[in-house]
TrEMBL record, chain A:
Residues 454-573 form the Glucose-methanol-choline oxidoreductase C-terminal domain. It comes from Gluconacetobacter johannae. GO terms for molecular function: flavin adenine dinucleotide binding; oxidoreductase activity, acting on CH-OH group of donors. This is GMC family oxidoreductase. InterPro entries: FAD/NAD-bd_sf (IPR036188), GMC_OxRdtase_N (IPR000172), GMC_OxRtase_C (IPR007867). Keywords: FAD, Flavoprotein, Oxidoreductase. It holds the Pfam family GMC_oxred_C. The keyword Disulfide bond does not apply.
UniProtKB/TrEMBL annotation, chain B:
The lineage of its organism: Bacteria, Pseudomonadati, Pseudomonadota, Alphaproteobacteria, Acetobacterales. This is Gluconate 2-dehydrogenase subunit 3 family protein.
Length: 594, 217
């Protein structure tokens, strides 16, 4: 193993997913020399998304071909700090990505803007219900940015992603049948909404009938041919049902690989190095300035890449892990409630409800598009009065039929209470697979003082580094929120004319269970904000402590959102890049003075 | 599915190496499972997905061949799992914590199950009738039986998971013979183009199932 020192560059970008690709594109546009380090393989539609070989459910969703290889590094998990955290040995509850494109290659495509009230949630809750409404131990915070700050960057990201959707208001004028709760936009979606699949259409009609406000989900799955501002092209989605877990063979689902990298790879200022595992960001003697990063190359060589600017843009928890391993920012201490790196670690609170219909009604669940569907937001964000309900947070509710294929159908089986195998299972599965509609309450998870990330004292990764430890459990506030919102779904399934319904609700006192897939929407741990005592990053996602390090990702969310995180991550990436380009590069240093 | 209708369901006394396949296709010879293990896998898979009026069973679908072929993939060696020591047991909801990869789970699980059955019934598992095999499998699925330090539940879950994968994955992996798993549930497989059916609300999809290699049923 040799020790190699590379030629200095202006910026090094850690991770080749959405955040890294956006920052690399913006920085090369600004004339910076950029090296992107991706620990996984190079990936493209041609190599990983070629039809028909790519649409293999066993390889995609069950052998996790384009996901993180846990044999190299994983995390440990426990429910509370008095337990021993144990390694997450098999992919189950969440599925982080690996390789060029990151989780942006295997994602579904749901592409939201953050609700304005969610960005100022602490302020809003205090104003509406009083400070005492916030439960003891909940670290409720504002982001330090507003919707108006971010709007141009939400708009830019949608245009890069080729997002399909229908607006409600543009520049304050009602223009369409979009989400009545959504904030005004500066422009329409770049593409019209995708068609509703049958289940979503039934859900739309029923939700309207009971007085809710359904809308077409914004989806980064192209509803028509599209050319984005970088000049790259997307083809129209054909509802093949292989979005989540797959590289899209139709070039319809937005990914860094399809929407950004074709414009970035030829840039002489840009270099992509794959199978480059970053071990740490190196700091100088003052610990206030990064000098570059050290990584292991594919041959096991120890490589130092000097850089003026370090962009930490791996997946949410990898970013937190790298900050802890590198000594960037003060690690969080849950006992004293001090320190910031690892603080406000959150997840998302998702449960699924199933409705079964008569056997004459074919819902064709194999037809699907990852981001499309119909949702209502009547119980999301501050769109409803929490006062009498006594909880903080909410859930959008939706039919987001991404395509249920053979193995998943077998594992879902029949309604609850039917056997998991044998003739009874088989009959129940066959009777229900083609005649069901599944809908999610896709809810928030608040941040709590005793839910956090730190370094595990026992288990190490394949590189000898301590693994990240997650201390996480469901809390009463979030369980009650889920139960309330799901109880509202019963009105909709009744209006849909379902023969039978199973309401998916969290149970009081329920513990987080790592064995079952829930969502990969992990967030927080290195959050943005206005106060360095409660945030690791300032409002531009710049480290308070090491000003030439920017940390881009869902790690910046102070609490969980009801929406999928990618739209917000992309907007934050463009927001941060804009301020690096317009202010930081001219005068490197802290962008926020205290 | 019709093509498989003539396939004999495995009976308790049949030698389980001949599954449903055309006369011209040679029988599959396992490379991982021993003859005794192979007989056990057949007798168990046959109950997990029985041949019945609803559709073909696991044997006709080639599920044992699928599992045997999977045992040669990196997955079966635990190459995609975090397998660093120490292995500390904890609450079930914190997930799998044994040092065993799928190959180990099968080897230890089948040996343990066979010994358990022999001790209790004085016969090999594959020589028991269907109802008895069902009751034994239910016991493994829900009970606290241990095969040494391997819980029967872990072995059962591994076998059930792989059985479902074998019956409903693309036939290139060795199972879902004749696309019988997919036709049973009405999944069109690698068709993967529904532009013209998205808004044909409530109607059954009209085209038959197809595999990645272009096989149709």
């Amino acid at each position: 193993m040799a020790s190699i020192k590379m030629k200095p560059v202006d910026a090094v970008v850690i991770g080749g997913g959405w955040a890294g690709s956006i920052l690399a594109k913006e920085l090369t546009e600004a004339g910076q020399t950029v090296v992107m380090l991706e620990r996984g393989a190079d990936r493209s539609t041609a190599s990983d998304g070629a039809y028909p070989g790519s649409i293999d459910e066993l390889e995609g969703n069950f052998r996790h071909k384009i996901f993180q290889n846990l044999s190299k590094t994983s995390v440990t998990i426990r429910n509370s700090s008095d337990q021993t955290a144990l390694p997450y040995r098999q992919m189950a509850a969440f599925l982080p990505g690996e390789g060029v494109g990151g989780a942006g290659l295997h994602w579904s495509g749901v592409h939201f803007r953050m609700p304005p009230d969610d960005l100022i949630l602490r302020t809003k809750v205090k104003e509406k219900y009083g400070e005492k409404f916030i439960p003891e131990g909940m670290n409720l915070q504002d982001y330090g940015v507003t919707y108006d700050d971010l709007e141009p960057f939400f708009d830019k990201a949608e245009k890069v992603f080729g997002t399909s959707g229908e607006a409600y208001t543009v520049n304050g004028q009602v223009v369409g049948k979009g989400n009545v709760f959504a904030p005004s936009r500066s422009d329409h979606f770049p593409l019209p909404a995708l068609k509703d699949v049958y289940g979503a259409n039934m859900f739309r009609k029923a939700a309207e009938e009971v007085g809710f406000h359904p809308y077409a989900m914004p989806a980064a799955n192209a509803s028509a041919q599209y050319t984005n501002p970088y000049g790259v092209q997307m083809g129209p989605c054909n509802f093949c049902g292989y979005c989540s877990g797959y590289a899209c063979y139709m070039y319809s689902k937005a990914s860094p690989n399809v929407n950004i990298l074709p414009a970035l790879r030829p840039d002489p200022n840009f270099e992509l190095r794959t199978e480059a595992h970053v071990l740490r960001v190196e700091l100088d003697g003052t610990k206030t300035r990064a000098t570059g990063v050290t990584y292991l190359d594919r041959n096991g060589n120890d490589v130092f890449q000097p850089a003026e600017l370090v962009i930490v843009s791996a997946f949410q928890f990898h970013n937190v892990h790298l900050m802890l391993l590198s000594g960037i920012g003060k690690p969080y201490d849950p006992v004293a409630n001090e320190g910031v790196v690892g603080r406000n670690f959150v997840y998302q609170n998702v449960t699924t409800t199933t409705a079964w219909f008569d056997k004459s009604v074919y819902t064709n669940q194999f037809i699907g598009t990852g981001g499309g569907g119909v949702a209502f937001d009547d119980f999301n964000s501050e769109n409803f009065d929490h006062g009498p309900l006594g909880f903080i947070g909410g859930s959008p509710v939706w039919v987001n039929q991404a395509g249920i294929k053979g193995i998943a159908a077998a594992k879902i089986g029949g309604p609850p209470g039917t056997p998991h195998w044998g003739s009874a299972w088989k009959k129940a599965m066959v009777d229900t697979y083609q005649h069901s509609v599944r809908m999610d309450a896709h809810g928030t998870n608040m941040a709590y003082r005793d839910v956090y990330l730190d370094l595990d004292p026992t288990w190490k990764d394949a590189y000898g580094m301590p693994m990240l430890r997650m201390t996480f459990d469901w809390k009463d506030n979030d369980i009650r929120m889920n139960r309330y919102v799901v109880s509202q779904i019963a009105k909709v399934t009744k209006a849909m004319g379902a023969r039978d319904v199973h309401l998916g609700q969290r149970q009081p006192g329920e513990h987080f269970d790592t064995r079952f897939y829930q969502t990969t929407h992990l967030a927080g741990g290195a959050v943005m904000g206005d106060d360095p005592k409660t945030s690791a990053l300032n409002r531009y996602l710049q480290s308070w402590d090491v000003s030439n390090v920017f940390v881009i990702g869902a790690n910046a969310f102070p609490q969980g959102t009801g929406y999928n995180p990618t739209g917000m991550v992309a907007a934050l990436a463009y927001w941060s890049a804009h301020h690096i380009r317009t202010t930081y590069l001219k005068n490197p240093g802290p962008l926020v003075q205290l | 599915m019709q093509g498989l209708a003539g396939a004999a369901a495995l009976t308790s006394t049949a030698l389980p190496v001949h599954s449903a396949r055309s006369a011209s296709e040679p029988a599959y010879s396992p490379t991982f499972f021993t003859p005794a293990e192979w007989a056990f896998v057949h007798a168990a898979c046959d109950r997990l997905i029985p041949q019945d009026a609803v559709g073909p069973g696991a044997i006709a679908l080639g599920v044992p061949e699928f599992i045997d072929r999977q045992m040669a993939t990196p997955y079966a060696f635990g190459k995609s799992w975090y397998m660093q020591a120490p292995f500390v047991q904890g609450p079930a909801n914190l997930g799998y914590q044994l040092p065993y990869a799928p190959r180990d789970i099968y080897r230890k699980g089948i040996a343990g199950a066979a010994a358990f059955v022999q001790a209790k019934y004085g016969k090999a598992f594959q020589d028991l009738d269907a109802a008895t095999r069902d009751s034994i499998l239910t016991g493994f699925e829900t009970g606290d039986t241990l095969f040494g330090d391997l819980p029967a539940k872990v072995f059962f879950a591994q076998l059930l998971g792989n059985t479902m994968e074998g019956a409903f994955s693309d036939p290139s992996h060795g199972g879902n013979k004749g696309l019988g798993g997919w036709t049973t549930i009405g999944f069109p497989g690698a068709r993967a183009d529904f532009m013209d059916w998205v808004d044909q609300y409530g109607k059954p999809y009209p085209l038959g199932t197809v595999s990645i290699s272009g096989e149709t049923a």
